[in-house]
Amino acid sequence: MSARDGHVILGVNALVLGYLPASWQSPRLHAHSFVDPDYWMRIAQTAERGTLDALFLADIPALYDPAYDANPAHLEPTVNWAHVAAHTEHIGLVATASTTFNDPAELAERLATLDYVSGGRAAWNIVTSRGPAPARNYGLPDVPLRDDRYERASEFVDVVTGLWDSARTGRSVVHHGEHFDVAARLRTPPSPQGAPVLFQAGGSAQGRALAGRVAEGVFAAELTLDGAIEHYRQVKRLAVAAGRSPDAVKIVPGLLTTLGSTHAEAVRRSDDLHDAGPPSYSVRWLSGAIGVDASTFDLDAPFPREVLDAPPDLQHFTGSVGFRESIVAQIRRTDPTVREYLRQSRYLGSGHAGFVGTPEELADRIEEWFAAGGVDGFNLQPDVLLDGLEVIVDEVIPILRRRGLYRHEYATSTLRGHLSAAAPSAPLHTPARASA
After folding, report:
1. Whole-number pLDDT of residue 432
2. Helix, strand, or coil here: 132?
3. What are the residues whose beta carbons fall under 8 Å from the beta carbon of 176, sequence distance 6 or more?
């Protein structure tokens, strides 16, 4: 039983069909499930049956190799969530949108509309986008430098939140900045929660600073409990430095899940799903995460030392800084060969932490990290979304309820209410570890 009052926050990162490329092979899916409105309605209603806090939906404005990417197309998050909102009552709906490839006035109106029609259940997951693929969709050779992207993002968020305020107050926003000139009032009616909740997903120093200043939730990438505690305390302190309460921002790392009725069964499921995917998947994902072509490595040698050093030029680094930091820290701890690491990552995760085991063991993991003050909750990412979500709802949630870690029914009707009703932040001093 956790010493912290309230419930752990639980969301699901709805990675279309699942986080593994072989997820499309599930016999419960059909060829068009990824764009089937009924599929998304079923996902949301299942999550709501488990009283989960929110569903997250990514949006990368880029085209990828269908031989590598299991999801050949997807629906735009805000439109998809508007459909889902009509068939649910409580579940929060988090839409990812880039500050690099959107207009703040248009996005403010789009998100405010979703928030209004959903009855106050919308959130914006703030990202800046990275790499040349999305840039080429907009006629650009590459995205702007990292510092430039975050400078624009900071101002972008201020314009959006100012416009949301204008919907409540009726007073126009007058903003003259480096990137935007706005003199307008948003005419969308305010929702029951006032304005959409702000999530942030960047792990760089600039991303964490933005999170401390404005975010109400952080979608983090943590592979170890020690790293999670360090990041948790850092972001909470950044919030305090920005004049906010540490309780104002909730930290919810991603957690990749593969579940079985026994531990051995879960391991077999993980192996089968990985083996059924493209052989190059792990190497290609690792290459993108660390910003180096991993296909050139000797699989039976340790990682080259220079690869584990910090990128010499973070401004042009195309990977996720948060993912890279987590991966490098994991490699340094055990010094595996490249082949060993790729095998380990099936069970330990890569970027986001991985979990392979039983529902009881997953509840142990959630309780340990929550009680230790490393997280306010988790954003779960099932291997096959539909199958894994049902196991979470029907088997994991009841265990957490019996331990006093999760609610039996919704006590609030808005996403902001769900987050406020969750457990307060752990103290900023070093917390005691929970026993396994």
Report:
1. 41
2. helix
3. none
Amino acid at 213: R
Buried b (16+ CB within 10 A) or exposed e, 225-255: bebbbebbbbbbebbeeeebebebbbbbbbb
- Distance (Å, whole) CA 356 – CA 337: 22
> What residues form DSSP beta bridges with 218?
200, 251
> Quick one: pLDDT at residue 1?
40
Backbone angles phi, psi at 400, to 5 degrees: -65, -35
End-to-end CA distance of the chain: 11
CA dihedral 312, 69, 42, 97 (to 10 degrees): 40
In percent, the amount of the chain with pLDDT more than 70 equals: 90
Amino acid residing at 105: A
Instruction: Give the integer Cα–Cα distance in Å for 214 and 5.
Output: 25
Domain residue ranges of the chain, discontinuous segments joined by +: 9-263+356-421, 264-344
In the predicted model, is pLDDT for residue 318 greater than 50? yes
**DSSP-H helix ranges across 195-334:** 205-214, 225-241, 263-276, 281-290, 305-308, 321-334
What is the reported pLDDT for 30? 92
Which is more confidently placed, 429 or 101? 101
Does the pLDDT at position 434 exceed 50? no
Q: What is the mean pLDDT of the chain?
A: 89
Q: Which residues pair with 78 in a beta bridge?
A: none
Sign of the alpha-carbon dihedral angle for 146, 151, 155, 161: positive
Instruction: Give the contacts of 384 (CB within 8 A, at least 6 positions apart).
Output: 17, 18, 20, 23, 26, 273
Query: CB of 253 within 8 A of CB of 353?
Result: yes
Q: Give residues with Cβ within 8 angstroms of 79, minimum separation 6.
A: none
Taking CA 12 as the corner, what is the angle to CA 190 and CA 233, rounded to the nearest 5 degrees?
85
- Which pair of structure tokens corresponds to residue 162? 């100012």
The 8-class DSSP code of residue 172 comes to P
Instruction: Please check whether residue 261 is in contact with residue 361, taking contact to mean a CB–CB distance below 8 angstroms.
Output: no
* Distance in angstroms (rounded) separating the CA atoms of residues 274 and 280: 11
Q: State which fold the 9-263+356-421 domain adopts.
A: TIM Barrel (3.20.20)
Q: Give φ, ψ of 32 to 5 degrees.
A: -120, 20
> For 211-217, what is the mean pLDDT?
95
Measure Cα distances from 132 to 75, 319, 343, 388 in Å. Answer: 22, 11, 29, 33
Threshold 0.85, pTM exceeds: yes
